[in-house]
Each structure stands twice: as C-alpha cells, then as structure tokens.
Amino acid sequence: MKDIAIFTDGACLGNPGPGGWAAILRWDAHEKTLSGGYRLTTNNRMEILGVVEALSALREPCRVLVTTDSQYVCNAVEKKWLAGWEKNGWKTTAKKPVKNKDLWEKLLPLLKSHSVRFIWVRGHNGHPENERCDELARAWAGQANLPEDTGFIPE
Question: Among 72, 74, 70, which residue's Cα sits nearest to residue 123?
Fold first, then answer.
C-alpha cells in the first residue's frame, strides 16, 4: 500500500462568496496539484472539497496523511463527528441538520477506501504546502465565470 501525503486548503472571498479549493498530493518524488472553484460557496465547503477531490484522485487504496488548516474537517473525522452525524440521521447533537451533508456523503466512502489520518496545522503560519494551497485556492476564488456550487444552500 502506497503512503501518500495530501495537503489541502479552501478559501472564500466573503463567506458565502466566490470560493476555491486546492490540494497537493505527494508520493515519493511524485507530486500532483489539484484546484478549482465556485462562484458562490462557503469556506467550509471548499475545505471539505479539497479533501474529497484529493482522495478521489487516488487510483488504488492508500495510506494517506491529510494535512489541513481546517479544524472543522480534521475534527469531523478524527473526533468521529462524521460517524456520529451519519448514525444520527445527519443531525448534530443539537438535533439540527448537518451542514454540507452532500460533501460529507462524498467523503465517507473515500475514507473507507483508504487508510486516512488527518493532522491540523495553523493556517497562514509558514507551512509551505499549506501556503501554496492557500494561494491556489484564493486564485481560483478570484476568477471570473466560476461554475455554480449546486450543493450550496444559502441560509
């Protein structure tokens, strides 16, 4: 089983607003960069989507270490919030609907296909890959004519 390092970030110009996501995948000396954006979305959606897109790019089961500056994403997996939300019919402990359910549902099978661990790093703190992902995500958020995020539900 290959050991893959994934670094992700999401950004939004306004929240909600135009947003972008980015991921760097690294295996041995190989590196692949992925990124994209939407015209109206949220920062949390872009943080989740960076992980979803990165894991979706893997062609076989891998051991993966995801480095993210999103405590939301990291804690959802590492603290088992995601498993609890699914078990409780996509309700929070406060019995409210879980936000971003569509993306969490895409992430779940990917987490089962791979052996994934998450580590959190402080954003904008000099971590080279996190800074690079942030630049890519912000660049996407600033583009014109971005597609619609069909899963975004305004509050």
Answer: 70
Cα distances from 74 to residues 64, 109, 110, 118, 153, in angstroms, run 13, 16, 15, 6, 22
Catalytic residue among 31, 124, 142, 148: 124
Q: Report pTM.
A: 0.96
Domain with 63, as residue range(s), is 2-141
In this predicted structure, the answer to whether residue 154 has a pLDDT above a threshold of 90 is: no
Instruction: Please indicate, yes or no, if residue 86 is contained in any of the structural domains.
Output: yes
Q: How confident is residue 124, by pLDDT bands cut at 50, 70 and 90?
A: confident
Of 110, 104, 112, 63, nearest to 84 by C-alpha is: 104
Token look-up 């409210």 returns: 96
47, 53, 129, 149: the catalytic one is 47
| Number of domains the chain contains | 1
